[in-house]
Amino acid sequence: MLRRLRLPVTIVAALAVAEAAVIVFRPRERLEPVDVAPQRYFSTEFIGRAEDFRSGQLVLFGVRLALELGLLVWVVRRPPARLKARVRRPIVAGAATAVALAVAVTAVTLPASAIARQRAMDVGLVTQSWLGWAGDVAKGIAIEAVIVGAGGALLVFAMRRFGRRWWAPGAALVVAFGVVITYASPIVLDPLFNRFEPLEAGDLRRDVLELADRAGVEVGEVYVMDASRRTTASNAYVAGLGTSKRVVLYDNLLEDFTPDEVRLVVAHELGHVHYHDVPRGLLFLAIVAPFGMLAVARIADRVAPDGLGRPAAVPAVALAIAVMVPGISFISNALSRDVEARADRFAMELTRDPEGLVAFQRRITIKNVSDPEPPGWVHALLGTHPTAVERIGQALAFSRSREGAAAAPREGS
């Protein structure tokens, strides 16, 4: 009886640790958004268009997930003869199995990805040709092959060296990989897909440096990415760690938005730097990874009990990861939303422009064809940022709190 309970208890424990970590890392300061009707800021026509786009993409996301899980289940339940056979070089075979599996998953889910891309083209979000997209897919597969190939080899090696305790060094490798990829992506991987140029000298650069000085942060470098060669959507983000840390602005953000709106975006990204959100995310990973990998090991052992230390373990572990990662991601998304809301508050405090944030959120939501207020369950599971309506509501609440503070009588008056 206890052996039967071991797997569900381990899974629940991993999810509970993730939830506890969210509670620990969640920002303590909160500003309850003003309740805002989306029709106040967005036309009925746009809301319908955004909802239609979101619902279709969500269905395709579910299709891709189902296809991936279905393929992994099929390989685990009906493994090819080569996976069951004894091999002279199991570590090399583990790497080859991982690469083959990654290519197969990409191939199976590619039609749904292509349909999702066509739908994005139909609403005007895609500017890249199909040939360019195919090149990106090929580059992505090549990079993934290197990463998962190394992962498959290390998995089989760890199983042969540590037996059923392989999950412990596996968790350490997951955290180490997170640190390395966070540091290296901006300088090694991202340039394979886009061009990055330092923000040229001028008023905007002076504004960025002045904002960073007022925020008391070392911003590293600010780069402009040629996002417009792929999409009309605008965005910005913080990437890197240590000497690779940088703020990245989409070129169409600079082209399509006013300098004051860009300052708000930069201030938001400086908020992430100020609160050390990237290192804190890695610390979250370090807490969750051991429990998550233990659950992965238990699931893999249940679905493929004879695969330990053999290439057949690779699809079993891949299936276990595909089961566990969405659950942990659904939980961690709640932390991400609160972190993004805090960065919005930081931007408003730094720029003293909550009204500008309201205008910006309205414009970028329309430009990116984002649903201003998706269904609650969709937002709770998949939302990494507050909804547009929530961000506008927080800006209004911030503005009202400033007005209230200004109107409050001073001591002794």
Which strand order spans the largest sheet, edge to edge or round the barrel? Answer: 1-2-4-3
Number of helices: 14
- How many separate domains make up the residues? 1
Oligomer: single chain
How would a textbook summarize the main sheet? 4 strands, mixed
Folded structure, characterized:
The protein is mostly helical. It has one domain (2-403). Helices cover 71% and strands 4% of the residues. The protein has 14 helices and four strands. The protein has a four-stranded mixed sheet. A hairpin with a 6-residue loop joins β3 (236-239) and β4. α1 (2-25) runs antiparallel to α10 (277-303), α9 (259-274) packs across α11 (313-351) and α10 runs antiparallel to α11. The radius of gyration is 24 Å and the shape is globular.
In short:
The protein has 413 residues and is mostly helical. 71% of the residues lie in helices and 4% in strands.
Keyword list:
single chain, mainly alpha, 413 residues, 4% strand, four-stranded mixed beta sheet
Architecture blueprint of SSEs:
Layout: H1 2-25, H2 44-77, H3 81-84, H4 90-122, H5 130-162, H6 167-189, E1 196-198, H7 203-215, E2 221-225, E3 236-239, E4 246-250, H8 251-256, H9 259-274, H10 277-303, H11 313-351, H12 354-367, H13 376-382, H14 388-407
Parallel strand pairs: 2-4
Antiparallel strand pairs: 1-2, 3-4
Helix pairs in contact: 1-10, 1-11, 2-4, 2-11, 4-5, 5-6, 6-10, 7-9, 9-11, 10-11, 11-14, 12-14
